[in-house]
Amino acid sequence: MQQAEIGLIGLGVMGANLSLNIAEKGNRIAVFNRTFARTQEFMAEAGDLADRIVPCETIEQFVASIRPPRPIIIMIKAGEPVDQQMELLKPYLEKGDIMIDAGNANFRDTVRRFDWLKDTGLTFIGMGVSGGEEGARHGPSIMVGGTEESWKRVEPVLTSISAKFNNDPCVAWLGPDGAGHFVKTIHNGIEYADMQMIAEIYGILRDGLGRSATEIGTMFGSWNKGRLNSYLIEITEKVLMAADPESGKPMVDMILDKAGQKGTGKWSVIEAQQMGIPATAIEAAVAARSLSSMKAEREVAEKMFGKETARFELAGGNVEADLELALFAAKIAAYAQGFAVMSGASEEFSWNLPMPTIAKIWRAGCIIRSQFLDEITRAFTANPDAANLIVTPAFSVMVKESLPSLRRVVAAAVTAGLPVPALASALTYFDAYRQARGSANLIQAQRDFFGAHGFDRIDGKDFHHGPWGSGAATF
Ligand code: NAP
């Protein structure tokens, strides 16, 4: 029998859809799942595509069904299970075979797994896949990290299954070992910020302006035709327009306000902090999800302090236009921060991450896909060495145009007692970033006072400590 071009382990939501996508694009694929009953169920649902799928009951049979050097996608529960699966698989593989972890791994685990296989003749790819169930089935955005040689082996299959933006495939080799999973992590960090900012605008409209879910949904629908056009705005409209079949009320009004999180947002923040790169909007978004989960404490606090929410009043301007532009300005800050973190990591780990390519493969297939990413692609292509997205010529114009709206919206929300942590942190990021002389001179003086940490002087003179001791001159 003709051997399969690729193998896949793990027929859960993502693995099953990815396998059907691979088969649909004309590739022969071998599949294996820990529980064979699931494999049988999957084959029964595969329809005509079953002809190109080889269902395997044992690992031995699975490995023998794939053409060497064998690329094997592992799409199972992240963490420990991946290590267990790799241990089980390893004895059956031969020199040149490639294990590919396509789950949401921490890139530090990916580097460790890559090193574990380094001297065995086997190799490892850490592959970020974004787009959820729908993306896996019809075209995800794929971020690959590993050796160039192993990438060459999988490139044709991955190119065939990836999403396309104007015929450009949304898949790329981004660098060695953990590069792909790191980029996927930051993708998710940006996604957290994007979602939080949208939710804050929704909160202003609901609590500060008394708009109904459908009124807000209609507004998001119109914004989706403009500069905010994106998958997240599109689904926000759909979510807000949906009715609960049980109560007949807007579905969103029936959902408990506790946001879940699986870890990629937190990892983005940890890595940004490790490198000393500010990612304030992403940090605010992760913290906001944590605060949202403290429902019982928030209920007690509301009884104690009252809601203190006043009507949202903008000083001049058109409310809807200002909210749209404010969201756009804040979005620029979040993306600028995410790209700055990737730029820092590229240097720290000698990855040489290609920023225009990253923006390019996020234009379709993934959760943060948008027209906006095409503009980021163009900005980084024209200015590959830009220190920050917001100082590229095209984005500096957009920031100047939209920042006044963000300022008005944040000011009005703060006055009304409406929480806008991500929007506010985006605003203060801009304000701090463009301030040539900030207030850290005082911090340096304090540090020197209590810890003799020293400071640099603005006149360049060689006195690095202040006159803090008793008897020193004072005003
Ligand atoms: P899922 O539906 O929960 O499927 C889990 C799969 O993992 C099943 O095939 C299960 O096999 C297998 N599994 C669990 N523990 C195992 C072990 N110890 N050894 C071998 N197999 C094991 O998960 P999913 O949503 O497809 O997610 C898979 C990966 O993709 C995760 O890393 C996830 O974070 C990532 N991801 C998910 C999404 C999404 O939207 N869902 C998007 C991007 C990335 P059994 O059938 O035998 O239990």
Give a topology summary.
Layout: E1 6-9, H1 13-24, E2 29-32, H2 36-45, E3 53-56, H3 59-64, E4 71-74, H4 80-89, E5 98-101, H5 107-117, E6 123-130, H6 132-138, E7 141-145, H7 148-161, E8 164-165, E9 168-169, E10 171-175, H8 179-208, H9 213-223, H10 231-241, H11 264-275, H12 280-292, H13 295-305, H14 319-348, H15 355-361, H16 372-382, H17 393-416, H18 421-433, H19 440-451
Parallel strand pairs: 1-2, 1-4, 2-3, 4-5, 5-6, 7-10
Antiparallel strand pairs: 6-7, 8-9
Our count of domains comes out at: 3
Count of individual helical segments: 19
Fraction of residues in helix: 40-55%
Average of the residue pLDDT scores: 96
| CATH topology group of the largest domain | N-(1-d-carboxylethyl)-l-norvaline Dehydrogenase, domain 2
How far apart are the first and last residues' alpha carbons, in Å?
91 Å
Q: Can you tell me the CATH superfamily of the largest domain? A: N-(1-d-carboxylethyl)-l-norvaline Dehydrogenase, domain 2
Helices and strands, in order, run as: EHEHEHEHEHEHEHEEEHHHHHHHHHHHH
- CATH structural class of the largest domain: Mainly Alpha
Q: What does the overall shape look like?
A: globular
Strand content: 5-15%
Bound molecules: NADP nicotinamide-adenine-dinucleotide phosphate
- Report the major sheet: 8 strands, mixed
Give me the Rg, rounded: 25 Å
Q: Which architecture of the largest domain per CATH? A: Orthogonal Bundle
Quickly give the structural class.
Answer: alpha/beta
Provide the spatial order of strands within the biggest beta sheet: 3-2-1-4-5-6-7-10
